[in-house]
């Protein structure tokens, strides 16, 4: 019990336990984190991480306070100091520096002479270490940042594939006939065109335009299914087809053989799509729809006098302007995966001949065609550039308008798959803390190695038998009081209560086995001698 009641022995045990725990914690935290480039990442909210750092800093600083008696006693042994000689003021200053560790009184104690100077320097070293740990803590607080990472969670199977009508025939009653396909549901087609459908969505990507199922209603990390990919393109052909205003209501064109000898009058209708890639086989009585789909598009706008148009725009006698476009759309079926807003697809094949025919007829539906023409009118009037106009029109008509008309009749949102091929992955948002590797290493080195060195010095305290004065000047009770109420005296870093107490001491008699020690009236006594056999 004698050893367990000693503050020196307590400091030895506490120092080594703290050193081992810090070492184990550093290894564990290092294994838990991930090093990416020059940063360390932990799957922990930044607030909790910084709170843990602050608690570690405060706890280690408090442990150093309780280790002080053992550290001082260990230094006595290392320097083979058997007797402390000095004046009462020196000893009193050492007491104040040991208990309060105030910068002012610790600095004064470092300049006193005698054997107490070495102990004062040790106290100053502990004080400097505490301030250094606080600075490293502050640096880590400033540089550490928090971020959220989206990660995949549970996989939920779902039959997420488009169901495209397969029994397309060419009679009036077939699923994909002229009368039962295309704009059979104008409201649904308009929603798809505006990308406001609850079941289908149009996805514009660099490699084309996709018709996909809408994303799940809840937040998902990824979802997959099958869809349709369209690669549209248009080019102005007014000059190739010799589009000219003849007389009256005649603005005729006649295209060469490469464009299937298409011809007509642009003033017959405001906008028209003439599909030229459908070939009727008289022997079998069927229509072969080529892929890609080809069409000659007639577009008419009112003439804007303040705009300048290139030669592909032809002025009619009645004041309007016309332009011819040759457009083509390459269609295919794809399998897709959307991960965090990024789409990747793999080809699954082309539409069947009948499906391609149904798509071509849907693309000629007047209502959707007129919407596409209206939506790109600003390009024609504002730029007057036929190439820019053709590109803009290809996106609006070649994909959105055509696919909206096609999907309103021949495409369903939910395929009847087995539910195993496609599905969605729930999203898990994980909070992370990112700190620079340099800040982490500085903090770890500062809190680990000095504390380990102090613990090694404590071991030598077991060889010292004259540590009673250190027990007195550095009792845990006083250290605890100082840690809790260190701002009690704001005008002086040294504790005034200890100075007042020293001035009131008249006589102290201490016996340590055979040696004896007496201090008489510190107001008049100039020297205190400590003898140890």
Automatic annotation (TrEMBL):
UniProt keyword terms in alphabetical order: Membrane, Transmembrane, Transmembrane helix
Annotated transmembrane regions: 12-35, 55-78, 118-140, 440-462
The protein, known as: Uncharacterized protein
Organism, as annotated: Rhizophagus clarus
């Amino acid at each position: 019990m004698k050893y367990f009641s000693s503050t020196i022995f307590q400091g030895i045990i506490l120092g080594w336990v703290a050193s081992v725990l810090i070492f184990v914690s550093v290894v564990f935290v290092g294994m838990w984190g991930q090093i990416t480039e020059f940063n360390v990442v932990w799957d922990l909210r930044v607030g909790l991480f910084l709170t843990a750092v602050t608690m570690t800093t405060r706890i280690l600083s408090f442990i150093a306070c309780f280790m002080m008696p053992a550290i001082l006693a260990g230094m006595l042994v290392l320097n083979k100091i058997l007797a402390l000689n000095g004046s009462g003021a020196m000893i009193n200053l050492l007491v104040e520096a040991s208990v309060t560790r105030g910068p002012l009184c610790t600095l004064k104690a470092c300049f006193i002479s005698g054997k107490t100077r070495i102990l004062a320097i040790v106290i100053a070293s502990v004080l400097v270490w505490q301030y250094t740990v606080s600075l490293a803590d502050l640096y880590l607080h400033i540089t550490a940042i928090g971020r959220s990472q989206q990660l995949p969670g549970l996989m939920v199977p779902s039959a997420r594939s488009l169901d495209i009508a397969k029994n397309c025939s060419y009679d009036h009653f077939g699923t994909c006939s002229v009368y039962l396909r295309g704009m059979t549901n104008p409201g649904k087609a308009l929603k798809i065109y505006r990308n406001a459908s609850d079941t289908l969505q149009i996805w514009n990507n660099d490699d084309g335009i996709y018709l996909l199922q809408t994303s799940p209603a809840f937040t998902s990390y990824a979802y997959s299914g099958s869809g349709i990919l369209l690669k549209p393109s248009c080019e102005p052909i007014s000059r190739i087809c010799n589009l000219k205003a003849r007389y009256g209501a005649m603005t005729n064109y006649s295209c060469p053989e490469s464009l299937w000898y298409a011809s007509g009058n642009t003033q017959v209708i405001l906008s028209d799509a003439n599909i030229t890639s459908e070939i009727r086989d008289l022997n079998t009585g069927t229509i072969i729809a080529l892929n890609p789909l080809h069409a000659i598009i007639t577009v008419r706008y009112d003439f804007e006098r303040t705009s300048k148009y290139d030669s592909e725009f032809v002025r009619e006698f009645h004041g309007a302007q016309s332009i011819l476009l040759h457009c083509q759309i390459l269609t295919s079926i794809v399998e897709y995966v959307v991960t965090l807003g990024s789409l990747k697809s793999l080809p699954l094949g082309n539409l069947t001949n009948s499906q391609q025919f149904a798509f071509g007829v849907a693309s000629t539906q007047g209502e959707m065609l007129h919407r596409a023409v209206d939506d790109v009118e600003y390009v024609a009037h504002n730029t007057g550039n036929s190439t820019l106009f053709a590109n803009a029109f290809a996106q609006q008509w070649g994909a959105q308008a055509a696919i909206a008309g096609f999907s309103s009749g021949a495409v369903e949102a939910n395929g009847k798959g087995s539910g195993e091929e496609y599905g969605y992955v729930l999203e898990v948002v994980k909070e992370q803390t990112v700190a620079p590797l340099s800040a982490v290493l500085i903090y770890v080195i500062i809190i680990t190695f000095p504390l380990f060195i102090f613990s090694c010095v404590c071991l030598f305290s077991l060889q010292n038998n004259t540590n009673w004065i250190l027990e007195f000047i550095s009792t845990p009770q006083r250290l605890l009081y100082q840690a809790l109420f260190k701002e009690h005296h704001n005008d002086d870093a040294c504790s005034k209560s200890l100075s007042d107490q020293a001035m009131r001491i008249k006589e102290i008699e201490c016996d340590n086995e055979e040696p004896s020690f007496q201090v008489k009236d510190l107001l008049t006594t100039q020297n205190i001698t400590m003898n140890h056999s």
